[in-house]
């Protein structure tokens, strides 16, 4: 798990995961040192978390 995926997972629970994901995507997009791999790892973690939330509330 990379830095951004960890930030998504441990972020402030008062902030919806969709908002945390959008903010982290913006950070990655705005930083020339970040790579496509960072975005892929973040998106994968987001999908895992969204899946677990959807499953838990079903």
Written account of the structure:
- This protein has about 60 residues and is an all-alpha fold.
- It contains three helices and no strands.
- The chain has helices at about 5-10, 15-30, 35-55.
Features:
single chain; 58 residues; mainly alpha; globular
Helix percent reads over 70%
Strand percent estimate: under 5%
The ordered H/E elements are: HHH
Q: What number is the mean pLDDT?
A: 87
Global outline:
globular
Give the termini separation. Answer: 27 Å
Helices, by number, come to: 3
Instruction: Give the radius of gyration.
Output: 12 Å
Biggest sheet features: none
Give the SSE layout.
Layout: H1 3-10, H2 17-30, H3 36-57
Helix pairs in contact: 1-2, 1-3, 2-3
Q: What does this entry show, briefly?
A:
The protein is an all-alpha fold.
């Amino acid at each position: 798990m990379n830095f951004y995926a960890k930030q998504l997972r441990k972020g402030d629970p008062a902030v919806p995961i969709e908002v945390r994901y959008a903010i982290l995507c913006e950070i990655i997009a705005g930083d020339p040192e970040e790579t496509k791999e960072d975005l892929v790892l973040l998106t994968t973690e987001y999908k895992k978390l969204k899946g677990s939330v959807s499953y838990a509330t079903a």
